[in-house]
Design a protein that fits this description.
single chain, 89 residues
Length: 89
């Protein structure tokens, strides 16, 4: 296994991680911004107000994106396992 294969493997792993995590992070960020705007408009400064809506939104997002995320992770894992013989030479 040479350096280029290691770099490619690390790059692919980081890319799949970012692709799988980004929908949940974006949902959390959007809900957080909406709640922050709501808090600043109404001047409600309750710190715990952001947690429940974010958790609910991310759970709904997980239900919506779960099949896509599982497909991406399965494809990456299958590709990694099938290329093990090429990597150990």
């Amino acid at each position: 296994m040479n350096q280029m294969q290691i770099i490619t493997l690390a790059k692919d792993a980081m890319l799949v991680t970012l692709m799988v995590a980004s929908p949940m992070l974006l949902i959390g960020m959007i809900v957080g911004v909406v709640i922050a705007i709501f808090q600043s408009v109404t001047q409600i400064q309750e710190m715990t107000l952001t947690f429940v809506p974010k958790i609910v939104a991310i759970m709904i997002g997980m239900l919506f994106f779960a099949s896509w995320m599982l497909t991406k992770l399965t494809d990456y894992t299958t590709n990694l396992i099938t290329h093990i013989p090429d990597m150990i030479r």
